[in-house]
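Worked example 4.2. Below are the chains of a multi-component assembly; read each line carefully before continuing.
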Amino acid sequence: MKSEKEKQDQVFEHLRKLPLELSLQEVEQRIERIAEGKLKSSNDNSWGHFFNLNQIIMIVIPASVLIGFLLYSGLTGPDPTAIQQGVGRQEMPSELPVISSLEEEAIPEFESKSFAADPEEEVIFAAGESPANAQEHRQAPVAEIWSLETANEDLGTEEQEFLIQAVPPTSSVEPGDFSSGEFSAKTATVLRPLNTRELRRLKKQLYKNLTADGLVRNRKQFVRIDLPGEEIRVNETAVVEQLKPKYAELTYRVGWGPERRIEMDADHIKVGDFTKDGFKGSGVGRFEADFANADSDLTAKAEGAALGLLGEQDSEELEWEKLKEEEGARLRDYCKSVRVNDVQPKNPLAIPYDIKFETCHQLHQELYAQLISDNLVNQVGEMVLLEYPKSGLYLNGKLMEAEHAKAYEKLLDKHKFRAGTGKEVQLSEHIVAAGHVIPTGFTGSLCTFDLKE
Amino acid sequence: MRDPKHESFLAAYQPCHEPLMRYCSALAYGKMDAEDLVQDVLLSAYQRWDKIEKKGQFLHYLIRSARNRAISKWRRKKFRAELLEHHDNKMLAKEVSPEVLLDIQILYRALDRLPDKQREAVILFEVTGFSMKEIAEIQECRVGAVKTRVSRARKALKSLLEERAERLPSMITSLKSIAL
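Applying the procedure described above to all two chains together yields the following structure tokens:
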């Protein structure tokens, strides 16, 4: 029997003697054809033949950079000044009327012809009408639609990000040349709503130009730009004639009017009419504002409720908002008199009483339960002041009897609230304040509970 | 009148023909058509003929070229039945016995299970007939390393063939039982 090695050698021998798949003559013929260019590589038809890794890298990386740049520039949006230079008011015939999209709804027979790349910049001409007729159309009454969305209300300071969807029209004098002097301070353009993006862009553009022109020191300085129409005032100083066209272009979307103004600083920008009733317009950022008709929604609802026009849900909402108002007012009053943890006590004994919200809640419930069981208060929500000096426990200024006091002392001790000078606990329906009064105010824990509880 | 490039290329190729064909047949067995591989290698070599510096070592160049092409395209592929059939038909046409073809197929399947370097070394040594020194030049390593590779490859082949021989009687027994 042959060994495996011999068999292996035998097979290799077979392989060595195996006839060649192509003879030399056949190969020479193929080489002839290669030389004549008639023969191509077997993988010439595959896509991979045309590319290698180097080519792919050299194509893909610049393409990615280019696409990224285009996307980025697309997201940042076109320069508003560039748009206005392209289709600026200088290029528009001065006698042709221009109306806003809001007014277009009131004049449906108008034919729209767009002359601007930006749809927001649409210019509309009346079909077959003279500019004078168009002016008459423009002064037709427009439905008043107000929608003021308030994002967040805080105590004292209001952080607002809102958008006026539409505004009631004032007299419609359209953009023109500021230098012509044809507009009086009494006339005003329609206050157009500006969205957050437009506002931020406007702020950026204005700060850029104002700092470049030396009208403000830096981009954090508060700026007030008045746009009465016949001139532009920056921080109460009229802009020189040379710069006026530029700022007119920049504030084109804002328009002008006797009370039209832009206010901005590092944190916010407000654009609109600053009337005696308050502010009407658009704004973004953190700022305080007294809004004209800010409570109109609530007032309208109250009137509606009186007339029985509101549904059940609306009535509940109204009631809820009233409750919130009342509670807010109470809380504000309370906080005016109480300053929590605003003084770091130097006396190590006067370490602020600091407990968690859950403990506060528990203390609130247990104290009220005990007070009601002892018939010292009638119901939860009555104002209670428990003063706890070392001399004894005082309920609303009166010294408690010893047998009653023991239960409260035990309860307070359970929550690690010890007797001491100025120590007191204040209770109301939604508030518990436990701590001690010091000459400069109050230190301790103050918790408010949700009104729904 | 032939082109001088063509003449020189043919002159350089003639001594390389047999070893290259055997090497390409071994590389391409069951995975691609050996003729296609040879054609690709020749086309590439002809186009770069002027740039080849060591024309005296043209065979090494062709072998490396064939190896790189086979590695980049077909090394991960399994044996394809139609290519095996195509190869067998070609060999049968050239009066190779079916027993020899079966032995060859078994050997190639065993070779396919070896590491790349060992397989290449053993094919170059046993089939193509290169010396250890020439294989070392092709594989760009020391002669000792080639010897080791060839030795290990032979041992591995031996064990693989033995393993198959052990499995064969049991397979035949089971086949018989099924047939009965």
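Take a moment to check your reading of the output against the notes. The CA atoms of residues 16 and 61 of chain B lie 10 Å apart. Chain B has two domains: 1-112, 115-180.
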